[in-house]
Amino acid sequence: MKQRHVLHLYWRAGFGLKPKELLGLSELSKKNVVDNLFKESQSVVPLSKDLSYLKSYPKSVLRNNKEKRMELLKKNREETRILNTIWLKRLETTPRVLRERMTLFWANHFVCKDLVTNHILKYNTTLRTHALGNFGDFVKAISKEASMIKFLNLNQNKKDSPNENFARELLELFTLGEGNYTEKDIKECARAFTGYHYKYDGGFRYIRVRHDNGIKKFFGEEGRFNGDDIIDIILTQKQCARHICEKIYGYFVNSDINQNHVNKMVDVFYGNYNIEKLMRYVFMSDWFYDDVNIGTKIKSPIDLIIGIQRTVPVYFTKTNELFRLQNLLDQFLLFPPNIAGWKGGKYWITTNSLMLRIKLPSMILEKESYTYQYRGNLKNLRIVSVKNKYQEKLTVYVDWKSYRKSVKKLSLNTLKETLILCDINRGTERYISSFGKRPSKKNLVKLMSLPEYQMC
Predict the structure, then answer these.
(1) pLDDT-derived band of residue 351, with 50, 70 and 90 as boundaries?
(2) What confidence tens digit (pLDDT) does each residue in 388-419 have?
(3) Cα separation of 27 and 209, whole Å?
(4) What is the pTM of this model?
(5) CB 3.0–4.6 Å: which of 125, 202, 236, 447 could bond 46 by disulfide?
(6) Angle between helices 238-252 and 275-284 (to 10 degrees)
(7) DSSP per residue over 326-368, as a string?
(8) Is a pLDDT exceeding 80 seen at residue 182?
């Protein structure tokens, strides 16, 4: 398999490769490379988080103690931020790159935000459990997640006063796409999901007396439908398969949707809704490796940070600095901006973020000082070129020993081909030729600081 194609696959289905990993995989056939990718991601390993602090806040105590409830709220905020760093560490070190990539994708499809740590951890586990499974089972599981029930007010959906928030997003964002249903469909869908609630521990709770057991009419079907019944009916609509295939194509292949390719994906996906089968088809298709799709995607902030860390192991000794970077780059894991999630693509690039993106490798790997200023509040920061009192350096440990071992006996050209996928113009080529021939620390930072490194 061509090196460029292997690297393309591992940036879209994972988080890049080390030079020696790329050289090894390029000796295999496409089928073997893809098979290995899926084999390594077969197992489901939930994020591990200590939740013992919850024993100090039993439900019986919280019910009549406002002070304790506020104390738990503050503690959960802190613990959820810790969960953010645990997930980032998983992304940096896991061999199960495809499952983690799929988990990230679905987290921005079934968008949800919750500060109750054990609930959002359970939701995250559901994402990674079903990430390569059956889409129908996936949707049903998501509809019963405590975090999603709260986020879209499903716990307020009662037969006497239906709340349509979840029903609307289920149809518009999760399954069919905007314009492929009617307002009547939303209302009937909401009726079917009445009675959904959650337990204190994050389990699903169905309150039968709140459920509307009357006859519903939905997409030509008629019956006393519940939530699962509605999802089954949605799955019979070919538009559901198309909506998901277009979303996957836009994320993994190209934001410029090729409907001929999507049509073939729909033929594979519709009916069985097997996510793994669909992704295998995409990664084995010749068109996935067309030049028009390679090196054309702007890396997300998480891709950028994790890509650097997977090349050179980096340990942030102050978690607040990692939080600040995510804020500055506009992608804070577990804290999506809204129900639509992060737009991605060209929206990752702003006047502020572009400067930070270019400086990030030197900030992390060479501890170059950076200057920022507040824009109104602590969450609204931006990198600036003028020095001020907020000048700092990241306190990170960089494992250069591991890096030197990974590039031993390799040329700078091999490192360049591992780090940069998009076409390089003549001016940049001349600039790179001035580096010499060694993949030194300094040359690594120079390559990662090129605008071309922003693409995958």
Answers:
(1) confident
(2) 666 788 999 999 999 999 999 999 999 999 99
(3) 62
(4) 0.96
(5) 125
(6) 50
(7) HHHHT--TT--SSTT----GGGG--HHHHHHHHHHHHHHHS--
(8) yes
Residue entry with tokens 């959906």: 157
Quick check: helix, strand or coil at residue 312?
Answer: coil
- State whether residue 299 is helix, strand or coil: coil
d(Cα 117, Cα 229) in Å, to the nearest integer? Answer: 30
Please state, in angstroms and rounded to a whole number, the distance separating the CA atoms of residues 241 and 279: 13
Give Cα 352 distance to the centre of its chain: 22
C-alpha 17: how far from its chain's center? 18
Look over the chain and give the mean of its residue pLDDT values, rounded to a whole number: 95
- Whether 308 and 365 have beta carbons less than 8 Å apart is answered as yes
Residue type, 418: T
Cα distance from N-terminal residue to C-terminal residue, the chain: 18
Write out pLDDT tens, residues 311-335: 999 999 999 999 989 988 999 999 9
SS3 category, 1: coil
Those residues with Cβ within 8 angstroms of residue 435's Cβ, 6 or more apart along the chain or in another chain: 412, 443, 446, 447
In this predicted structure, the answer to whether residue 136 has a pLDDT above a threshold of 90 is yes
Mean pLDDT of 249-276: 98
As a whole number of angstroms, the distance between CA 253 and CA 241 comes to 17
